[in-house]
Design goal:
The protein is mostly helical. It is built from nine helices and four strands. It has one domain. The strands form two sheets. It has a two-stranded antiparallel ribbon. Strands 3-4 form a two-stranded antiparallel sheet. Helix 1 packs antiparallel against helix 3, helix 1 crosses helix 9 and helix 5 runs antiparallel to helix 6. The radius of gyration is 21 Å and the shape is globular.
C-alpha cells in the first residue's frame, strides 16, 4: 500500500478535527459578538480572469445578525460539527479498508476491542454519510451490513451473539504519553439487534460521545504518527 494513500487518510482525519475545533471557535464568537458590520464581498479569481463571489455581503450580514440575536445553535455550527464528525469517520473507515500497516496498528492498539470499535465506527460513518434529515433518523441500510458483520464476528467466538458492540476508553491506558487526567474516560454501546428504522441517531449515540469518539480517532492518528517517526529515527 502506497504511503501517499495512507498520508491522505491521516491528513483527512487531522484536517476534519481541526475544522471541528476552529469552526466551534468561530461559531462561538459569531453568537457572542455581532460581526455583521464586518462583512465584505470576497471575490475568488479563477482561470481566464473569471470570478465568483463566495461571500455575498447581504447574505452574510443577515446570517451573522441572526446568530448574534439568537445566541444559540447556528446553522454554521451545526454543519461544521456534523460534517467534521462525518469526515473523520469516513477517513478512518477508508484507512482501515486499505488493509495497511495503519490498520494493523489500530488492531494492535485496541486488541479484543477492535471489532467493537470498528462496528461503531462503520455505524457512525454510514449514518452520517447517507443522511440528509436534520433529525438524523436511522434507515435500515445504515446499520444492516454492520450488524451482520458484527454478529458473524460474535459467532466466531463460539458464543451466542448479543449484537451489542461496547467500546470504552480510559485515556491513561490507551494514550499514556498524552498525560490525560485519570478520569478522562468514555464508553459507547450500540445494540445492533435493537436498532429500528426511523430511530433518532442521537438516542443511540449521544452528541457528547460522538465528539469523544471523534477525538479518540484523531488521537489514534496522532499516536500512529509518533510511532512511525520513532521507527524512522531508530533506523537512522
Amino acid at each position: 500500500m502506497s504511503n501517499s494513500k495512507i498520508e491522505d487518510i491521516l491528513s483527512l482525519v487531522e484536517q476534519n478535527f481541526e475544522f471541528l475545533h476552529v469552526g466551534a471557535f468561530l461559531n462561538y464568537h459569531a453568537t457572542k459578538e455581532n460581526l455583521s458590520s464586518k462583512t465584505i464581498d470576497i471575490q475568488r479569481t479563477f482561470e481566464n480572469e473569471k470570478t465568483y463571489c463566495v461571500s455575498m455581503k447581504c447574505l452574510t450580514e443577515d446570517a451573522l445578525s441572526q446568530y448574534h440575536k439568537l445566541q444559540t445553535a447556528t446553522v454554521f455550527g451545526y454543519l461544521v460539527e456534523w460534517n467534521a464528525i462525518r469526515g473523520v469517520s469516513m477517513a478512518m473507515v477508508e484507512g482501515i479498508k486499505l488493509e495497511s500497516y495503519f490498520k494493523k496498528f489500530i488492531e494492535n492498539q485496541l486488541g479484543n476491542r477492535y471489532k467493537h470499535y470498528y462496528a461503531i465506527l462503520c455505524f457512525i460513518r454510514n449514518v452520517l454519510s447517507h443522511n440528509i434529515d436534520n433529525e438524523i433518523r436511522l434507515k435500515q441500510s445504515d446499520y444492516e451490513g454492520t450488524k451482520e458483520s458484527f454478529l458473524k464476528y460474535e459467532k466466531s467466538l463460539k458464543k451466542e451473539p448479543s449484537g451489542i458492540a461496547k467500546f470504552d476508553v480510559n485515556y491513561c491506558d490507551v494514550f499514556p504519553n498524552l498525560n490525560a487526567p485519570r478520569d478522562y474516560v468514555f464508553d459507547i454501546e450500540v445494540n445492533f439487534k435493537g436498532l429500528q428504522p426511523n430511530e433518532c441517531f442521537l438516542d443511540v449515540i449521544s452528541e457528547l460521545h460522538l465528539l469523544m469518539f471523534t477525538e479518540f480517532c484523531f488521537n489514534l492518528v496522532k499516536l500512529f504518527r509518533l510511532e512511525e517517526k520513532a521507527k524512522l529515527t531508530a533506523a537512522l
